[in-house]
């Protein structure tokens, strides 16, 4: 189990409290300030104050109107009603907000659209807003935009980028604004947790909790308490994690923060299952399972259906266990599809924006060049020097823009090729690269070998120790094998716990020897750092190119047959393909 990306919907709530004051009436500004403070402490009081100020709506200035509707949308975000939040934000935009207030409203529209799975619109808005950052001297606006960018990276699983931007933003803020210092400290802690830097994450969550408490930001304080619980949860310390979740749950109830409440209840269902309190586990699981089937609930419903399946299995109710597992598997597939949609939408938005900027810049430059050429004939010879300098500058600027677009394109293409959990090549990208290498080796009549690896009894690790431990094993194994590979080897996650290593220019003998080296290294992994003591082993099938092979498919098929044989003869071994396996 990992910290859910729903923290995206958590941090933005606190960011709603950063609306700029740009109104003429001091009294109403004070009332809006009071609503902001109430949103940080008690949503019921905030709602009452909103109703009061709405009764005097005609007295508000346009900027106060925008600010009011921005605050109203915070209420709907708390309740997970992203459609209503987006509708209210559109109303806020109708009053033509300015400056920081306008930037905030667009940032919150990004969040609402992500909540609605309108990723293309969300990422287009993000790109437009990021393009405006350099137009502002106020570092707070830059920090807000960087915060939204970190939310997007959290959705895409780009945790190294979150860590980099969090550190950049902390350096930019330098503790000057306690509010943003609080947010950025939380992101910093989340990035370390996602990267499984548990000790650092635990310390950072503690520091964030104390800092936010001392500076009067209770919502981020609660998020830090929950984050501390997630660290312990991911380490498998369920009894230690329980009190953190219970405290966070009780305090979130005051905010009616549905998204966070649902997620904590799903974690508690897992905790009580591991603590053998099946009644409590089932109670929390059923609360979550009764939620509507909407995108923001898919992850938590998948989690509790897995718990309900395990509970039914423990009770011998195997039909029920199977039904719950079918639901969990279907939700898991939806989540994977959703992740692909997000990544594709983000890349498309980025590429479209770069292309539009390039076209607009080109048109402006063409117009300027024509005007300069016209003026050239009407000025003295000395003015030609100035024009030439300007022309060179424009050319250099265009070149830099094209280089930047090319680098961005390569960056996102690289992200699309990587497996989100392990960071190695995904199946599509890995096989495509390997196929190209295979064609080259065939042209030169060189050897080519394939290793198919499958972690033994991996489902038992997930079932007995939890998915967080399973994820730890997958990352540990891939990191270790990556360090053992040659630069020409192609390491790919084929799916689940199955991997492939494509080895251009390597004979079957060399590949078999390497496979045995990998098998031995995996068997000697120290799992203590996962929080549990258990053994990890791997079965490996090996095949090499034959004279009749015209593509990679026959090699992969033979390696799969060899892998199946390795499993059949007892696992934790290496098997090479032979004609007897046909």
TrEMBL record:
This is diguanylate cyclase. The lineage of its organism: Bacteria, Pseudomonadati, Pseudomonadota, Gammaproteobacteria, Alteromonadales. GO terms for cellular component: plasma membrane. One of its GO terms (biological process) is negative regulation of bacterial-type flagellum-dependent cell motility. Its cofactor is Mg(2+). It comes from Shewanella polaris. The chain crosses the membrane at residues 385-407. Pfam families: GGDEF, TPR_8. Residues 446-579 form the GGDEF domain. SUPFAM superfamilies: Nucleotide cyclase (SSF55073), TPR-like (SSF48452).
